[in-house]
Structure formats: C-alpha cells, structure tokens
Amino acid sequence: MRHFRPLFAQYKKEMILGPLVKLIETITELIIPMLVASMIDVGVANRDLNYIFTYGAIVIALNFVGIASAIICQKLAARAAIGVCGGIRLKLFKHINTFSYVELDKYTTASLNNRLTHDVARIQTAIGMFIRMVMRTPFLLLGSVIMAMIIDIKLSLIFLVVAPLVLGVVLIILRATVPLYDRSQKNLDNVSHITKENLQGVRVIRAFNKQEFEEERFKKATKMQEKASTKVATVSSLLNPFTGTIINFAIVAILWFGAIQVDVGGLTQGQIIAFINYLTQISMALVSLANIIIAFIKAINCGKRINEVLDTKSTIISPEKPEVEREPVVIEDNRVEYKNVSFAYGNATKYAVKNLSLVAKAGETIGIIGGTGSGKSSVAYLLTRFYDTTSGAVYVDGVDVREYDLNELRNKVGVVPQKAVLFSGSLRENMRFRKEDATDEEIYEALKLAQAEEFVSELEGGLDYRVQAGGKNFSGGQRQRLTIARALVGKPEILVLDDSASALDFATDAKLREALKTLARKMTIFIVSQRVNSIKNADQIIVLDGGEIVGQGKHEELLESCKVYSEIYASQTK
Asked: What CATH number should be reported for the domain whose range is 334-572?
C-alpha cells in the first residue's frame, strides 16, 4: 500500500463524499418498507386513497433521492477509481522504464503487460466497489436488523439463525476461491506470453508450417486457463443458490410464525411484508459483502504482483555523485578501455565474457568478430552499461562507466542494436530519439551517412512519413539503415554497431563502411559483426571464442596468426 498511498490521498474528497452520499440512498431503502407497511395496514385496510397516494408520493420521492444519490456516488467512485489506477499505471510504467536488462530478463513482457492492464483493472473495480459499498453494506445490514426488531423482537430471532448460516456459506466459498484466483492469474500470464510470441513470430511460424503446432500449444494454455477460471466461476456461482435457499426457508418461517401472530392480532399484514423486505435486504447485504471480499481478494493478489515490480530496484543506476567534471579528451588518449573484464548473465555459471582486456583510442575503429555465442554482443552491452561487469571494469575517457550518470554515458555512446526497432509516429520523431531538437539538416546528414537518404527522399511526406509500430512498413535493410541514422543524429563520441548491417546487401554495406571512415577522426567506432568484410579494414580486430580474446590485430596479421579468424574468413570467401 505504501506505493499507492499518495495516489489515494489525491482523491480523498471523492473517497469520503462517495460513501456519505451512498449512505443517504441506504437510509431511503430502510425507510421505504415501513412506509409500504403503513400503506397496506392503513390505506389499503381502510380503502383510504388519499392516504395511499400521499404515502405513495413519499415513496416515489425517496426513490428519486436514492437514484440521485446512487448516480452521484457512482460518479465520485468512477473518478476516484479511474484516477488512482491511472496513477498506478503511470507509476508502474515509469518504474519499468528504469529497469536494466537484468530486471527485464527476470519478468516476461506478457507478465508486465498483464500487470499494467489486467491487474490494475482489478484494483480499479475494488476501489469502485469500496466507495459504493463500504457504508451501504454494513449500514443496510445493521439497519435492517434494527428495523425488524422494532417491528417484532421475537420474530426477528429468525435473523439470528439466518445471518450466521449465510455468513458461513460466504466464508466457505471465499476460502475455496482465494487460491484459485492466483492460479488463474498465472495461467493468464502464460496465455498472454504465447499470444505475444506467436504474433511477433507469425512469419517464422508460417514459413515452417508450424501453425497447427502453435495452435495446439495455445489450445493447451487456454485449456488450463479455462479449467482454472471455470473452477473459480463454479465455486463462486454456488454463493447465490445457497444463500437464496437459506433466505427462502427464512421467508417461509416468517410467513408461518407471522401468520400465527396476525391471527392473534400481534402483527399486521403490512408488518409481515416489511419484515420480508428487511430479510431480503439483509440477504442482499450479505451477498454484497461477499462480493466486496472477493473483489478485495482479487485486488490484493493483483496489488502484490504490482508491488513485486515496484519493489524491484534496477541494478543499473546512476551514482549519487557522478563524476561530471572531466577534461576534454584529446586524440592520443584512450577513449575506451576494458580491464580484465568478466561477465556472466544472471545466475549462469559460465562466463559470457572472460578476462577481456582491450584499448580503443579516440578515433579508432574496433571490429569484434567471433562465432555465435562467443560474447560479441555482451562486450557491447558492458560498454553502454546495459549490464554491469561481474569483475573488472570498463572505462570511457579514463572514468569507470559505473561512475557516470546514465544519461551522460548514453549521450556519449550511440547504439545500434541487433534488432532494428522503430516506433509508431513520424520518421522525424524516430530520428530525434537521441537529440530532441535535431534539425532536418542534421537528420538528413545522418541519413546520408547511413545510406538511407535515397529511399527516404522517395517517401510520401519525407520525414513526415508515418512509421508503423516496429517499422513494419520498411524492409529489414531499410530498418537497419534508419536505426544507424538514428544513432548518428547528435554525433555521439562513441558508436556501437551491434551486427546492425546483417540485412544489408554487400554493395550497401560497402558504401556504409566507406561513409563511416569519414567519421573515424571524430568518433570511436565499435563494429560487432559476423562478416569479415564488415570489419577487415578496422584499426583493431578482436576475435572472440567462448568469451575470450583468441586473436587481436589487423586483418592480414590475423589471417596468419589466428586460426579462428582464418576459418571464419575461409568460410565466407572462395
């Protein structure tokens, strides 16, 4: 609750006024049965139409007051519930955006999405019910019992039998459903995960004719969700029949004993009707209480899942006092240095990078090559501090990257990840990710270097062209060139290309490498690639195998001295 308390404080007025207004509606519900009883006992018995019309008008007026109160309370409840949960969503979304790759690896995307949507919606329902029912249910329950006792103390003893029975049924059903809700929620996460995976990989699935396999996989997951949800619904559905049966037997008892009292003149017919109305209100109050408890159990479970995320602190944070005052680097200085760096993912026992040391001077181009799983991308992740080293340190301009403010570090480093991702919006908005106030001239300069200017100039609207989510309206090669251009906008001091030209044809790749040469004196460039052609002209080539450097030098030197490099080269050339 500590995460949500400030949000509730913003809607204190609605959360206080809502129940008070609802209390007015409840009072009208308690008064009306007594008025109806008087209409029957006096108006109907004496055939007094004026009496009936007068009391009927009062009943109608009270109903209008109750309706108005219900509408006002509903509006206040909606405003508070939507406002609080909107704040929770924003808080959760902001917190997720602080996560490093370590935390994002821990939670699945589907699970985080469910917590942002489904779980928050459950909390919203509970808040709305709380405001509408917190005063109404106990007041209606207690008020109905008191009014029934006023009518006849002996007959009201039936309530002392009925109330514990109904409450017992409610508690038994609640105890049975609580663990089922948790299981149902986890199954829903699994269904969402499979759905997302299939939608993202639909082209691969169709290419391999795996539709039936994936349909069967999805069917199994939904079947588990269906079983869990059905079990919850089945158990919950027993509430109304059981309570209804108890109430019906209570009504029979009231009519039986009430009839005896009417015969001896102890009670009137109107009082019996009022008595039944109050019994019905008591049963409704108990069922409402059960629904509130169920809603709160769901909300508490969802709140725990949200709190789990909010309590997870990012392992990659800016230092409290970052080293911000530094002398400008000169061309002879080491721009980037890895010192005895080792790194392992999560709880893995095997290192992805092991005892790696290398130096990149300002203006140098560093090529990193190796087989699949050799640790190439991991080296890039450590430079940008997407992950922290397990041991050793990475230095930029002589300062440990862990001492940098994260914004400052990532302003220095332009990154082009393996997966080229663009976002919905205009092309100009995508190009301004690194520099929000970048001019069109700066953007076109970056597009030209990335070999994207030609096809962008042919787009309808140019930089105003609308990009679909994920950049689906561009080819793979076009997306890669646009992400390279996006990294170049703002002219970073260090550029990391993480296998970001894999979808380019050889001619475009060659032109891109030629263009990058013009930047060599302005920025340090790391090219992570599996293509020898992409890195053979680099000032230094680092050959990785099993996370360790097995070769380091220029292209010609490595052909002679490094077996791994020569084998990669031979596999890619005739």
From this structure: 3.40.50.300
